[in-house]
Amino acid sequence: PVVVASPGLQAMASALQRRLGAEAASVVRWETFKSGDPNIRFDFRGVVGRHVIFLFDSVDQNRMFEQLSLIQALQGFPVPDSEDAATKWKTYVKTGQYSWGRVAKLT
User: Fold this and answer.
1) At CA 56, angle to CA 46 and CA 35, rounded to 5?
2) I need a surface site. Which of 53, 59, 89, 106 has the fewest CB within 10 A?
């Protein structure tokens, strides 16, 4: 499985990863735009078709929206069929060069 947690629960996530023998790779980047709005990114290669265990932080109210957004995104997202890194704005959806990906299980 892949363990995902907001920054406030990283210590718990690390302990759970060790206990489960899960890989320790971080697939989520909890970033913000200059405005302070969330800019959450995840590596689709690390989650597509995998069992994801999400440790939801219900204490930190400032992270509520971004956690809910990530949960929604993990349930279905476009996976590019070709490399689209050369353009600032991704073009694979417009050209139809993608498939639909999702996690196998979200706990």
Assistant:
1) 80
2) 89
Contact 4, 52 (CB under 8 A): yes
Check: pTM over 0.70? Answer yes or no: yes
Cα–Cα distances in angstroms (integers) from residue 103 to residues 30, 37, 43, 48, 50, in the given order: 19, 25, 12, 5, 5
C-alpha to C-alpha distance for 98 and 87, rounded to whole angstroms: 16
77 CB-side CA count, 13 A:
20
Q: List, for residues 36-83, the tens digit of each pLDDT value.
A: 999 999 998 899 999 999 999 999 988 999 999 999 999 999 888 767
Give yes or no for a contact between 55 and 12, defined as CB atoms under 8 angstroms apart. yes
